[in-house]
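Fig. S4 source data, part A: sequence.
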Amino acid sequence: MGVLPRYSSLVNPHKAESSFTFQTVFKYLMIIIGIFPMALMVNWVLLPHAFVGGGLTGICSIIYYLTNGMFPTLFPEFGGAIPVWLTTFVFNAILLIIAGFLVGWRFCIRTMVGVAAISFWYRVIPILPEPIIEDPWLGAIVGGFVFGLSLGTVIACDGSSGGTDIVAMIVNHYRDISVGNIMLACDFIIILSAFFLPVPERMMEEGTNVLYIQIKRVLCGLCMTVSYTAAVDWLMGKIHQSVHFLIYSSKYAEIATAINTNVNRGVTILDGTGWYSQQPVKVISVLVRKPESSLVLNLVHEIDPNALVSKANVSGVFGSGFDKIKKS
């Protein structure tokens, strides 16, 4: 049998202690790059449309709208409003200091990278006077989806953009309340507050009253939130999808050893009985990430082309070598 290439340590970090530093640097770079589309959607869609999204971004955008024209000397390039990048950085810095003492500094390190990156991109990306997607409903859907893909990339790298994530972690540390429920409640309250904000002149439509615009503004914010939540769920489902193999072969020992050696995955041998032949059989059970499934199939084909293989997609696998078991 030919020697197959050892699987990448990026996919199997539990067997790659020697490349820990490279993986850490790679994750941080992906967090910095992955946050860019998120900032792009805020400065090119959310703020030009005067939407209010969820999380800390929503709070910072509210401050941006309320302070418009108040500080022409300090922030001339932002129309005299307190810029989102500044409030994002300040609020996150305060929350991180609190979280560091209450939850632990290990949680804060990766979040600091995300906070610095999002603040930087908010600062360097110009806020467009007109949104790149003119229709508000389409802007909410597309902008939210791109925002969600960006956020999902950051989460997949064990990162965070800060904001209500930090608040949720602090509350969850002391109270048995789901992090997801805390974030959902925060988003809902922040988006509903858009109803009480003054309506910009550019949002006024001929023959349309202010109440309609206020309701529309809230609904667009909710639509954007639903869109980015769906995008995050879709991306995380794709990234974390795993495969369960059941392999029936007389060469089970050779196949199991090859999977251990070349794919770096644990293998379980099950005892069975062929009902037709009434003979004992050995069944290989192995769980792998979806990108690794082709390697397993290639190994089986090379060792025993006549083997019987069952392959089933698994939505989530938790434990050693896969995702950590977390409280939902």
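Fig. S4 source data, part B ends here. The longest strand covers residues 279-289.
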